[in-house]
Design goal:
- Helices cover 65% and strands 4% of the residues.
- By secondary structure, the protein is mostly helical.
- Helix 5 packs antiparallel against helix 10.
- It is elongated and about 80 Å long.
């Protein structure tokens, strides 16, 4: 009974209160629970912590948590049509592959960079100002999760390398459709995705759920345990944004549109600078979060 009460009290205390304040409250209540007379007047764990919590600080934390969660899940689950974030992948795709100086360039072309920049800045500012660094050494789970997210970042770059090295394998094969019914200004086309592209896209798409789970768990741990977990959140965000950007690049392959022709000389250059900035910003942000 006492153990169950302290377990629930600890969960609410670490969620609603700053870390050091939560530790002080838990230490006091361990003494109270150990006293049979005082233990009879204990209130419900949530009500006890709610009475001690600073409302403004708590609601601010909820707002920051919601913003960071949406930013992360929008990238991690952006390629899944079963989630409300599916349109994010379309925005990434509509950004195209143009250089900033080209007339076709729009704000969507820089969306991956903006996405990561906002998430990284908000995470670092919040946890550097409000989060608390644990006195204990890093938990074993933190480096393991970090290595897993770095592996997913490497997987995205492997897909980019494959596309750059063998672009002919990743082209969408377009054929004129004779079964099209309706009015249009020109012939209708039907696209068939190559097997190589399908294989890479399945590998990349499979990382979304893992990065979503790891990133959200790290976000919670960064507030309730050790702010250095924010580094794992930022690596997960980087992996998710980079993967979604690479998937958008693959979706843009077309053999009938010269702006996205996979066999066009130096076709990949407009993508690489964005991928490079996203990766570098994510790694720098994660390093800053560990300090």
């Amino acid at each position: 009974m006492k153990k169950d009460y302290m377990t629930r009290l600890e969960r609410w205390a670490r969620w609603m209160l700053p870390r050091q304040e939560a530790e002080d409250v838990l230490a006091d209540y361990r003494d109270i629970v150990a006293d049979p007379e005082l233990a009879q007047d204990l209130g419900k764990p949530r009500a006890v912590i709610w009475a001690l919590a600073d409302r403004k600080s708590y609601y601010t934390w909820l707002g920051v948590f919601a913003a960071l969660a949406v930013l992360h899940l929008a990238a991690a689950l952006g390629y899944s049509p079963l989630t409300p974030f599916w349109h994010v992948s379309r925005w990434y795709e509509w950004g195209g592959g143009w250089l900033p100086g080209d007339p076709e360039y729009t704000i969507l072309s820089a969306l991956p960079i903006l996405h990561l920049t906002v998430g990284t800045a908000l995470c670092l500012v919040w946890f550097r100002l409000r989060g608390e660094k644990g006195n204990r050494p890093l938990s074993k789970g933190l480096p393991l999760c970090a290595v897993l997210m770095l592996a997913y970042i490497a997987l995205a770059w492997w897909a980019v390398w494959r596309c750059c090295s063998y672009p002919e394998l990743f082209m969408t094969i377009w054929t004129e459709s004779t079964a099209f019914i309706g009015e249009c200004d020109g012939p209708a086309y039907h696209g068939t995705t190559s097997n190589a592209m399908w294989a890479v896209m399945v590998w990349l798409d499979g990382t979304g759920l893992v990065t979503a789970l790891v990133g959200m768990a790290a976000l919670v741990k960064a507030w309730t345990r050790d702010r250095r977990w924010a580094a794992v959140y930022l690596l997960a965000l980087t992996a998710a944004v980079l993967t979604l950007a690479v998937l958008a690049m693959l979706e843009n392959f077309s053999s009938i549109n010269p702006l996205h022709d996979a066999l066009l000389a130096n076709w990949f250059q407009p993508y690489l600078w964005r991928f490079g900035i996203v990766t570098a910003a994510g790694l720098v942000g994660a390093g800053a979060a560990l300090c």
